[in-house]
Amino acid sequence: MAVGVDDTPGWRSDSLEDLEAGLLLEAIHRHYGFDFRQYSPASLRRRLRKRMEDEGLGSLSLLQHELLHEPAAMERLLLDLSINVTAMFRDPGFYASFREHVVPLLRTYPYFRVWHAGCSTGEEVYSMAILLHEEGLLDRARIYATDMNEAVLDQARAGIFPLDRMKDHTTNYVKAGGTAAFSDYYLAKYDGALFHRWLIDNVVFAPHNLASDGPFNEFHVVVCRNVMIYFDTPLQNRVHDLFRESLVRRGVLALGAKESIRFTSAEEHFEEIDRQWKIYRGRA
Ligand SMILES: C[S@@+](CC[C@H](N)C(=O)[O-])C[C@H]1O[C@@H](n2cnc3c(N)ncnc32)[C@H](O)[C@@H]1O
């Protein structure tokens, strides 16, 4: 939080709470590598207060202590900060590009592994499974879907998504080049859409923290979209190195539209497949 720039009525920029909030964000940044210091102070203050109250704590300093010593509390704060937001076929242009540029490469392998790092509640994993199924490649794929947050992984495993979001997801699916009726992939039950289990027969959901865990397999494709936006440069570099170590020779790396390896030390190791959709391929 940029201390002293909040003009919320009743929010004194020199208040003790303001000081505590600044120190807390600094501590999160230094310990976890998440940089929320430029977040809008008003909404941040609301969410920090809510987390403080829900944890039964009397001050932001106590919350700071809790967050540093109890990673599960940090996960709950991340949920509060809504950094788990995701969608089916999010950025349809990315999936269209993946079909056009990456699918032909995948066809050359008898068997391949895909890693979705930071998969949140799994919408992008189900999207990828649908895309690979439509390209006749799902049987050849093994998908590893990881996130640091166990709560979102449980939702991903369950494969039930709010029915009221299906209209938007269907629009994305069509724009992404979907070749069937999107509703073929789920059963509508009450207010939920239950996706067919065969889509995730070859999917392993598991916890993995990009800030602290190491490589665990070799992948032909690594997809890590909209995860590194809150990471500082050292943490981004760590994750780029982790992905390089995890990719097979000439493997594919896909990042979010607002993320890039340009001007990083990873840049020289990759060539661009699609500049707009941040799809890269390891150099020979
Ligand atoms: C905005 S969501 C992105 C979801 C999906 N990849 C997409 O593009 O729609 C970011 C996800 O990254 C996860 N995440 C954040 N920091 C992480 C870390 N250090 N290791 C693993 N996952 C992390 C969060 O828990 C969250 O689920």
Output the keywords.
284 residues; alpha/beta; Rossmann fold; seven-stranded mixed sheet; three-stranded antiparallel sheet; 10 strands; disordered N terminus; binds S-adenosylmethionine
Structure in a nutshell:
By secondary structure, this protein is α/β, with parallel strands linked by helices. The chain contains 9 helices and 10 strands. It folds into 2 domains: about 60 residues, no CATH class; about 190 residues, Vaccinia Virus protein VP39 (Rossmann fold, 3-Layer(aba) Sandwich), CATH 3.40.50.150.
Q: Biggest β-sheet, characterized? A: 7 strands, mixed
Ligand types: S-adenosylmethionine
How many runs of DSSP E, i.e. beta strands?
Answer: 10
Strand-and-helix sequence, N→C? HHHHHEHEHEHEEEEHEEE
The largest sheet has its strands arranged as 6-2-1-7-8-10-9
Structural class: alpha/beta
CATH class of the largest domain: Alpha Beta
Proportion of β residues?
15-25%
CATH superfamily of the largest domain: Vaccinia Virus protein VP39
Number of domains: 2
CATH topology of the largest domain: Rossmann fold
Helix-residue proportion: 25-40%
Mean pLDDT over the residues: 92
Q: State the end-to-end CA separation.
A: 43 Å
Using only C-alpha atoms, the radius of gyration works out to 20 Å
Which shape, going by the Cα principal axes?
globular
Assembly status: single chain
| DSSP helical segment count | 9
